[in-house]
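To illustrate the input format used throughout this study, we show a single complete record. The first block contains the structure-token representation of the backbone; no residue identities are included at this stage. The design step must infer an amino acid for every position from geometry alone.
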């Protein structure tokens, strides 16, 4: 059985609407899961259950839209397809993942970071000119957003790098691994993959640019996920290792 052909939507507007619907349903899923955590923390178990059940339904809606957008990834009977077809489908998944992650770290997050900085310096100050305390609070929020977008850029770069290595390994070009030696000065969070770069520091947390990781106070936390400093390890880039030789 040949893999399904890529979808040829006759109307570009329909494709755009499907993509928008997929994004909306996906966002609703995560939003409802967040609401479920809030309800659970406040002792409303029934409401938390309702949010979780609805989130699962939104996931199914999102999957339905994605199947229409990418029928080449739909597998009705996994046992009936050949190893080559399996590799083609998995390669397509990785290629789409690389495409998405690369867009995020090269375009989306840098643009968001620039916009957040601009809002902090001008828009927020102008909008809340008569409410100094509130404008200062918003400026801090925008500054933190800009900082986080900067951190997220390195995370998405790291993800794209790993996907690229995985794709090459799937194509039989070697085995996924890590560099033998860490990148000097860089440390990565084992929870969220945030990479601490001493050249940038973490100014929002009082860590000035140029501060080596070893000089950061032990109570410092990851600005993305809140993990402790001890959670970080030296950053080793993903690499493609020569395939292991087998002997009879």
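Output of the design step:
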């Amino acid at each position: 059985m040949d893999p399904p052909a890529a979808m040829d939507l006759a109307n570009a507007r329909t494709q755009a609407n499907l993509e928008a619907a997929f994004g909306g349903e996906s966002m609703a899923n995560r939003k409802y899961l967040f609401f479920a955590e809030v309800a659970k923390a406040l002792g409303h178990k029934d409401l938390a259950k309702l949010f979780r059940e609805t989130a699962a339904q939104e996931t199914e809606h999102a999957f339905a839209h994605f199947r229409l957008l990418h029928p080449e990834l739909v597998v009705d009977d996994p046992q009936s397809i050949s190893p080559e077809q399996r590799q083609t489908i998995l390669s397509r998944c990785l290629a789409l993942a690389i495409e998405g992650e690369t867009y995020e770290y090269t375009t989306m997050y840098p643009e968001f970071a620039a916009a957040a900085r601009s809002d902090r310096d001008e828009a927020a100050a102008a909008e809340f000119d008569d409410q100094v305390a509130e404008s200062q609070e918003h400026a801090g929020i925008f500054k933190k957003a800009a900082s986080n977008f900067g951190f997220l850029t390195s995370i998405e770069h790291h993800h794209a790098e790993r996907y690229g290595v995985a794709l090459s390994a799937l194509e039989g070009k070697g085995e996924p691994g890590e560099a033998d030696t860490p990148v000097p000065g860089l440390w990565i969070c084992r929870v969220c993959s945030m990479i601490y770069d001493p050249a940038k520091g973490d100014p929002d947390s009082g860590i000035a640019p140029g501060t080596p990781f070893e000089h950061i106070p032990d109570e410092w936390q990851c600005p993305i996920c809140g993990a402790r400093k001890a959670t970080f390890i030296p950053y080793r880039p993903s690499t493609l290792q020569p395939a292991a030789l087998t002997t009879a």
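Structural context for interpreting the output: The mean pLDDT is 84. The longest helix spans residues 83-127.
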